[in-house]
Write a structure and sequence with these properties.
The protein has about 200 residues and is of the alpha/beta class. The protein contains 6 helices and 8 strands. It is globular.
Length: about 200
């Protein structure tokens, strides 16, 4: 699905059942793509639970850039992308997330997007070697519950449990969360199941 924004075109890879229980919108890191192992594992888990999944290639990556540039412009484009996807899938709960830089975008925009929850994979708490430059405020100000999944060997740090609804720390994983993607998905399943369950509860 091609998506237009004020800051250039974006693209979403869509996987969806006929009547999804929720919409999960995921995106990549600064220098990554939508086929990262952790994103694919979470996509598969969400589909098993009856969710629709959109893996979004943001405008800066679609244009071939390795850095997102202005956070304000990145967030503006993201909100346009999410609005277009919500229009396609209707009034189902929105869960948004991503890995690394994508997790930051999902947190910063969650309130404006009306997200029911945020899935933050490999949230980059601080630049490597610079713990004094913490980004924990992005987690705290999301305005909704945030699930963080990080590796215990991540050079970007691991958020404190107090800064999110839940922080899952996977042993042996670094920033790419590529050692055991199934463990990443397993951490996300209870989080996603609540929205699948909410649809079942209101169904006739």
């Amino acid at each position: 699905m091609e998506l237009s924004t004020a800051h250039g075109p974006a693209e979403a890879a869509l996987d969806a059942p006929a009547d999804p229980a929720f919409l999960l919108v995921l995106t990549h890191g600064s220098n990554g793509g939508v086929d990262a192992p952790d994103l694919l594992a979470v996509r598969d888990a969400a589909l098993e639970l009856g969710g629709a999944v959109a893996r979004v290639m943001q405008p800066f990556r679609l244009a071939g850039r390795r850095a997102p540039g202005s956070p304000v412009k990145q967030d503006e484009a993201w909100l346009e992308i999410v609005a277009a996807l919500r229009a396609r899938f209707g009034d189902v709960p929105l869960v948004q997330g991503g890995r690394s830089n994508g997790a930051r975008v999902a947190c910063r925009t969650a309130r404006a997007a009306g997200a029911a929850g945020v899935l933050a994979l490999a949230f980059p708490l601080h630049p490597p070697g610079k713990p004094e430059r913490s980004r924990a405020d992005e987690l705290r100000s999301a305005g909704t519950e945030v699930l963080v999944v990080n590796g215990d060997r991540d050079p970007f740090g691991v958020p404190d449990p107090a800064d999110a609804a839940r922080v899952v720390v996977l042993p042996g994983e670094r920033h790419d969360l590529a050692k055991d993607p199934a463990a990443v998905a397993a951490a996300a399943v209870p989080w996603l199941r609540r929205w699948a369950a909410s649809r079942t509860a209101v169904s006739p």
